[in-house]
Amino acid sequence: MTDQTSGAAPGTPRPRSPHYVNREPWDPYVSERLTAEQEKYYMAGQWKLMWWRFRRHRPAVVSAAFLLLMYFSTLISEFIAPYDLHTRHSAYIFAPPQRVHVMHEGQFLGPFVYALKTSRDMETLQRVYTPDTTKPMQIRFFCKGDTYEFWNLFEWDFHFFCQPEGGQLFLLGTDRLGRDMFSRIVYAARISLTIGIFGIALSFALALVLGGLAGYYGGWVDSVVQRITEIIKSFPHLPLWLALSAALPVTWSPLLVYFGITIILALLDWPGLGRAVRSKLLSLREEDYAAAAQMMGAKPGRIIGRHLLPGFMSHLIASATLSIPSMILAETALSFLGLGLRPPITSWGVLLNEATDINVVAVNWWLMFPVVPVIGVILAYQFMGDGMRDAADPYG
């Protein structure tokens, strides 16, 4: 008779499986450390979990660093730009970009440019600029140059880098008035980048108020807000932008035009965010914690602001981040068409407006350089918005 389970005779000792012993020294604090790590994860708040997920999205992190650098540059535009915004060089109209060198005839000189020689093409009557390779001119750093008013607080003349002594420095060429394109692009970033931030702040506030009222109260309030949203979204955006921008009085100061364009962009952008707020509140207002707060006598404003909105605020921030590029593009398009910001205000769209003549662009191609930061900022916002949206996803 054999054992049915092992096939051995009764009484025969069963073979034991080999036993492996870990010979590493026992660490009594391993379990404590694991528990602490688990507790750190389980006890983390929503924003900390979002930050941990966001850090794993490498393109989003790089894009966020790039955008921080761009916005920081707007605080010190006068220091970064080698020339003042309105400095003209009448002897160097439509000068091409100068190449920066570090070696001259086998000798290291540091960053320098060659002096420009000017001549006239007698057939086309255009100026011709050629580098004089016998005259290297070193670029100065942390130097004194054009005087400027730093944030309209005090006058200063200190720059990060300046033109060589007795020479000129045009990294991105000059325009039809001989103004340095690099300096103008640096100054224009302050307008183009901030108009997106201010516009989305106003649009975000409108979306929270109107979308919150429609989602919480429902009924006729929801119907009115929804009809307003549908009317706004039924108009083609570009013709509506053009009509509203053209309606701005010509006598307005550049500052009023700036705020007018910002308000126009915000009024046309809020319906998308407003619908997102409404749909979320419609589902969350029936939750137990919202009903408990209402039974305890909390007012609707407190229920919406303290209990409902924080539950999906991360999604709204991610959506708002993705809306900023559309505002920057809208301002650039309006200014490019001549219906947005106007000189003396300088934005990337205003600079591109000077490149509307295809004949000028065919010869002076460097006038299209302002489109490069526009593309870079738009792509950075898209990557960062994707990372924030993934980080805000509770099932990610």
Give structural notes:
The longest helix is centred in the middle third of the chain and has 37 residues, at 181-217. With 396 residues, this protein is α+β, with helices and mostly antiparallel strands. The protein is built from 14 helices and 5 strands. The strands form 2 sheets. The chain has a 3-stranded antiparallel sheet, with no helix packed on it. The chain has 2 domains: 92-172, no CATH class; 183-392, MetI-like (MetI-like fold), CATH 1.10.3720.10. Helices cover 54% and strands 13% of the residues. It starts with 29 loop residues before the first helix and ends with a helix.
Number of helices: 14
The CATH architecture of the largest domain can be named as: Orthogonal Bundle
Q: What is the 3D form?
A: flat
Fraction of residues in β-strands: 5-15%
Briefly, what CATH class of the largest domain? Mainly Alpha
Low-confidence spans: pLDDT under 50, at least 5 residues? none
Please write out the topology:
Blueprint: H1 30-42, H2 46-55, H3 58-75, H4 77-80, E1 101-104, E2 107-120, E3 127-138, E4 140-150, E5 154-162, H5 181-217, H6 219-234, H7 237-246, H8 254-284, H9 288-295, H10 300-308, H11 313-336, H12 348-353, H13 358-363, H14 371-392
Antiparallel strand pairs: 1-2, 2-3, 4-5
Task: Quickly describe the structure.
54% of the residues lie in helices and 13% in strands. It has helices at 30-42, 46-55, 58-75, 77-80, 181-217, 219-234, 237-246, 254-284, 288-295, 300-308, 313-336, 348-353, 358-363, 371-392, and strands at 101-104, 107-120, 127-138, 140-150, 154-162.
